[in-house]
# Entry
Amino acid sequence: MRVSILGLGNVGKGLLRILSDRGTSQKFREISGKDIEIVSVSDSTGTYLSEGLAPEKILDIKLQNNISRSLERMGMDGIFSMEPDVIVDLSPASKDGRRELGIYKKAFSMNISVVTANKSPLALHWKELNEARQGSESIFLHEATVAGGLPLFSLISGSVLPSEILEFRGVVSLTVNMVLSKMRTGSSFESAVKTCQEEGVAEADYKDDTDGVDAARKTVILANSIFGSSLSLKDLKFGGVKDAQSIEGWKDGRVKIVSTIRKENGELHVSSGPEMLLPGDPLLSLGEMSMGYTIKTNFSGTITVQSAKDGPIETASGVCNDLFLVGKEIVDKK
Ligand SMILES: NC(=O)c1ccc[n+]([C@@H]2O[C@H](COP(=O)([O-])OP(=O)(O)OC[C@H]3O[C@@H](n4cnc5c(N)ncnc54)[C@H](OP(=O)(O)O)[C@@H]3O)[C@@H](O)[C@H]2O)c1
# Structure
């Protein structure tokens, strides 16, 4: 399966690490009968030919900052000229999502599948993306856009199929909650953000995280993909670190940035912002680097899922799982 990777940062390098593992390639071959071949890689400096190179070799070149010296640079349309089966988008979320939207639309028009961890195009152009997919054979998966590596969309689309989801509540954005937690125990805002950057969980533009934009983007994606709405980021009021600090008692650790989506009398209620959690709320037990959610369903009961720790490698694992699903679906279709 020919794969083009956009973005070789924390998550991109994590994906290369996972793909370098022999167990991963063996499992992929068992599932799909194929090997994963990375035919091109892109970073902020351009797109480069990587056909024939093992993931560990590409990782090594990137870690040594040698991409532009060691690999052949390709033109603007480099990714498409390699005729990949899948484009994996691990590039930073752009403000308007237009750069990514253009790439995905072109991919769909060429029946190329897309796997993404990048929230921006989904939170801003959901309707347009779905329209562009109509009539295309592309598979579009975005597990890692919400709650990092925690299984969410694959769980909902594969394990509770007879049920209707009545409510979603979750802590799905790590940085904003981690910054709050660090500040509660005495860190300054700047040093809390710095720790998140060192852990590879904060966006380069960390204000998107701390202002609650990242959590709001995720809430929009959840509402659209699970509850069938067509919301955009501008439809949502949201809050971040500052709003959380304005709640009396925030320092006792019960205030978190929570995404809530609830169906009530046929209406959808969507919110993303600080909430004072009540005793007994499963979200209260989440650690500083963990995320989690609870879904209420009509037939499958109430299900809570949480991770002990979620960072770039766990996110990369969610991305890799999507690649496996694409490989499997391509085989199943034949
Ligand atoms: N970090 C996490 O735990 C996490 C969790 C969930 C989702 N995500 C999402 O996953 C994506 C990647 O996150 P990250 O933490 O890996 O980010 P990152 O460390 O900032 O890395 C971004 C990578 O994208 C490259 N890049 C910049 N502009 C590009 C462009 N126009 N085209 C292609 N590549 C470009 C950068 O190039 P250079 O190497 O040259 O700078 C870098 O390699 C983001 O959309 C983020 O929101 C991250």
Observations:
- The mean pLDDT is 95.
